[in-house]
Design goal:
- By secondary structure, the chain is mainly alpha-helical.
- It has a three-stranded mixed beta sheet with strand order 1-2-3, with helices on one face.
- The protein is elongated, with a radius of gyration of 24 Å.
- The two termini are 37 Å apart.
- This is Cation transporter.
- Keywords: Membrane, Transmembrane, Transmembrane helix.
């Protein structure tokens, strides 16, 4: 199946599920007024909007223009960067908002007891849905050699959403067993802050890792994905086995893969043979990755 079609299908499924998750999260937030649930709901709505944007990017990133003759593949890591930044900012703002409530309780004695309502049933359902969507997106990306930066970003988002739901469920289940007037009674008033802080600490690594990886892609950094490298090296070695001083660098930007072969002190006859073989090398490589180019350099 064409990688772009798989990508588009994954984004369609993600958009529908994320939209429903977001509406459910906001509905439960209105019932309980818990900022942890607002974080969960808004995160899903951001994921819904970003899935729609990603679908549009996926459809047009391979198109070539006069300004970008290699295509608009840079939009894919750029999308992942923007989504990572939005996620990190959301986590930071959620912690700051709930910190104000905890500060008001501990410093000024202003207390508002939390209403948990349907938190446990909601988080249980969201946990199953988000982890299921995470597994689906990872499986589909693996089918195409983990080439899609967009699907990888979606899967990271699904994982974070699932972790948020799981942490909320576990935390408020624990709160349900804390009696009033006990030493831990303060958690009935400030638990929202501690849960949100824990969620932020748990979830912070994933968008940060994606941000760094996507920035390297955008800046034309070399690939460190065994699924891509091993396959391509195996093919290239068949054509370059007679050439000793060769350095192969593989770059990836979105779904576009660029192979740069550095030939050092190569005899003229061998160089001419490699140039003649280049169309055949490219045809063989395109059987594994549709959007791929090969360059020689001295």
């Amino acid at each position: 199946m064409d990688p772009k079609k798989i990508e588009a299908h994954c984004l369609t499924v993600s958009a529908i599920i994320n939209g429903l998750n977001g509406l459910a999260g906001l509905a439960v937030y209105i019932m309980t007024d818990l900022n942890a649930l607002l974080l969960d709901g808004v995160f899903s709505l951001i994921a819904f909007i970003s899935s729609l944007v990603a679908y549009h990017i996926s459809k047009h990133s391979h198109r070539k223009t006069a300004t970008f003759p290699q295509g608009l593949h840079f939009l894919e890591p750029l999308y992942a960067i923007m989504k990572s930044l939005a996620t990190l900012l959301l986590l930071i703002f959620a912690v700051l908002e709930t910190a104000a409530t905890a500060f008001a309780y501990f410093v000024h004695g202003i207390a508002h007891k939390m209403t948990t309502g349907p938190v446990i049933p909601y988080t249980s359902i969201m946990l199953f849905v988000c982890f299921g969507l995470f597994a689906y997106n990872r499986y589909m990306n693996k089918k195409i050699g983990n080439i899609s930066t967009i699907i990888a970003a979606e899967a990271k988002g699904n994982l974070i959403d699932g972790l948020i739901s799981a942490a909320i469920g576990v935390a408020f289940l624990f709160l349900a067993f804390i009696p009033n007037k006990s030493p831990l009674d303060f958690l009935h008033y400030t638990g929202d802050f501690f849960v949100t802080l824990a969620l932020a600490l748990i979830s912070f690594k994933e968008p940060l890792t994606l941000l760094i990886t996507s920035f390297k892609e955008l800046a034309h950094g070399t690939v460190h994905l065994p699924e891509i490298q091993e396959c391509l090296y195996e093919i290239l070695e068949q054509y370059l086995e007679e050439t000793e001083d060769v350095d192969i660098h593989i770059y990836k930007q979105g779904m576009q893969v660029r192979i740069k072969i550095h030939l050092q002190d190569v005899e003229h006859d061998i160089m001419r043979q490699l140039v003649a073989k280049k169309p055949h090398i490219l045809d063989t490589l395109k059987q594994h990755h549709e959007y791929i180019t090969v360059e020689y350099s001295l």
